[in-house]
Design goal:
heterodimer; A: mainly beta; Elongation Factor Tu (Ef-tu), domain 3; Rossmann fold; 14% helix; B: TIM Barrel; 7-stranded parallel β-sheet; 10 helices; 32% helix
Chain lengths: 241, 304
């Protein structure tokens, strides 16, 4: 679970969002929707980040600079090493019965959709991707998604790029299952707008990231769940909203 | 060959390392990472008479050299622990375990102590009279010597295993509280629990924790723990399980010199899940460096 990874690249995608790729043993990662936990210099607790993409000896994360931890990360250079806990959380369940899944990502909830999109495509699914951002300046990964699937729709809240509105606005898409990740108000809107079952990835302040401290527990219809260990992905049917 | 064994109120531990309650669950997550039978023992998640969800989130805040938590004793309740978790625990841990119990009234503490102490695998019962995160109980008992005496003596009557009382550092005079435990018939004390703390988000100007304040733990509290352990060691004759900010084998030796017989490792488990394993591997090497042949010889051995 614990590995030392080496930074390959670390570059800005927008004025505050960065993409970091790392090399090293990533065998513990079992699927999209899982997360990793970085130990950073001078910070006591680790910093959890969702996995954007991974492969043999390869990990990619996308992060927004919001505090001391992510600020420190944004200044790191290729060759520097990081102590990382890998393969945390349940991730998305890809064994569900779906032919036409829709992927809804909002802001920095977009990254986990990337490897998920790849995996669903590999499974022969007809995937639709909708990514929501506040404004044109914040849009990232449109091209990357378009290289995997044809149906990629970009939404901006202020209409400065793509279609105006939220990921749930004018929702008339064809789909039979939902995968989503984003800020909680967006997840709630997805929950209320979509009519099929789906998997929702949640965020919470964590202590350990592997189920020991009970810092991130939430209530579900299926009992108390630790977002870090029993989540971060919950199925629609168990969410209490 | 360095002898790492310690005798904790009659219970002989292979080494003094005991993961602290609240940082190790019921052991299962760590058992999937390494063979936890290398531990001296571990103190399981604070268990109460009834199931508890605990406090609203956020329950965790990062601090310089430490963290705040306000988990609030989330646990599945003593019956579930005794009937479901304890039978399963045998499959991944084959040593006596420390059963940490919390409560809101003397009756609840007694019920909990009675039930856990009847579990075969429980070697020691650890009475938490010091949780800062629950109202109407916990620390409310632990800050008053008379109440500590009352709850300890009542629980002792219902406890079939050696009883340790876990003390809060949020008091003026830790010695009088420790003395009350000894007078009430406790077999040992554990200290320190977390220190009360608070953090504020500068953007929202709201407390980071949903409960406003919580318990501060981690590396930063180590010197506070050392001082209090030494105070208590010099005051009572009971064995002490030291706790607070331990991260290395050197820290273990320092805490034992202050007076601890066993040493609990808490928050460090959350950042490095292998920290107890690493400390146990390092202990013989560090003992050699400081010319320690028998670890139990150094308990309370601070000069002056």
């Amino acid at each position: 679970m614990q590995q030392i990874l080496t930074i390959l690249t670390n570059k800005p995608l927008t004025s505050s969002v960065y993409e970091m790729t790392l090399s090293g043993n990533t065998d513990k990662i079992t699927g999209p929707g899982q997360f990793v936990n970085f130990k950073l210099l001078g910070l006591y607790l680790r910093r959890p980040l969702s996995i954007c993409d991974y492969g043999k000896n390869y990990l990619k994360v996308i992060y927004k600079v919001v505090g001391k931890g992510t600020e420190q990360m944004s200044k790191m250079l290729p060759g520097e090493q990081l102590d990382v806990l890998l393969g945390l959380g349940n991730g998305y369940d890809l064994t569900v019965d779906t032919k036409k899944p829709i992927l809804l990502g909002g802001g920095v909830g977009t990254p986990p959709m990337y490897n998920l999109c790849k995996k669903l495509k590999e499974l022969g699914k007809s995937v639709t991707v909708i990514l929501g951002f506040n404004t044109k300046e914040e849009v990232f990964y449109e091209e990357e998604f378009k290289q995997i699937v044809d149906k990629v729709i970009i939404k901006t809240a202020d209409g400065s790029y793509g279609e105006k509105g939220f990921v749930t606005s004018d929702f008339s898409h064809e789909y039979d299952y939902v995968f989503t990740c984003g800020p909680e108000p967006m997840l709630k809107a997805v929950y209320n707008t979509t009519t099929t079952s789906g998997q929702y990835s949640f965020e919470e302040r964590m202590g350990c990231g592997f189920g020991a401290c009970m810092g991130c527990t939430c209530k579900t219809k299926y009992g108390n769940k630790r977002i870090c260990k029993d989540g971060p992905v919950l199925v629609k049917e168990e969410i209490i909203w | 060959m360095v002898d790492l064994k310690v005798n904790l109120a009659g219970l002989v531990l292979d080494n003094p390392i005991v993961p602290a309650s609240g940082t190790f669950g019921y052991g299962e997550e760590f058992a999937s990472l390494y063979d936890i039978n290398i531990l001296g023992s571990f103190s399981f998640k604070g268990t109460t008479a009834q199931e508890r969800f605990g406090n609203p989130t956020p329950r965790i805040a990062d601090c310089a050299n430490g963290m705040l938590n306000s988990v609030g004793l989330q646990n599945p309740g003593v019956d579930y622990v005794c009937n479901t978790i304890m039978p399963k625990m045998k499959t991944y841990f084959n040593k006596p375990v420390v059963a940490n119990i919390g409560g809101f009234s003397i009756e609840e503490y007694c019920e909990c102590a009675k039930k856990v102490s009847e579990c075969e695998q429980v070697g020691i019962v650890e009475l938490n009279v010091s949780c800062p995160n629950v109202h109407g109980g916990g620390m409310g008992f632990g800050t008053d010597a008379k109440l500590v005496y009352n709850v300890t003596s009542a629980v002792k009557q219902n406890c079939k295993k050696p009883l340790f009382v876990k003390l809060t550092p949020n008091v003026t005079d830790i010695k009088s509280i420790a003395k009350a435990c000894e007078d009430a018939g406790a077999n040992g004390v554990t200290l320190i629990n977390t220190m009360l703390g608070m953090r504020i988000n500068l953007n929202t100007r709201k407390p980071i924790l949903a409960m406003r304040a919580g318990g501060y733990s981690g590396k930063a509290v180590f010197p506070v723990a050392i001082r209090m352990i030494n105070d208590v060691y010099n005051t009572i004759k009971l064995p002490i399980m030291g706790c607070g900010g331990v991260e290395t084998a050197e820290d273990v030796i320092e805490m034992m010199l202050a007076g601890a017989t066993a040493v609990q490792v808490g928050s460090a488990n959350l950042i490095n899940p292998f920290v107890c394993k690493e400390i146990i591997q390092d202990l013989p090497i560090v003992c050699k460096k400081y010319k320690i042949k028998k670890l139990s010889d150094i308990i309370g051995g601070v000069n002056g």
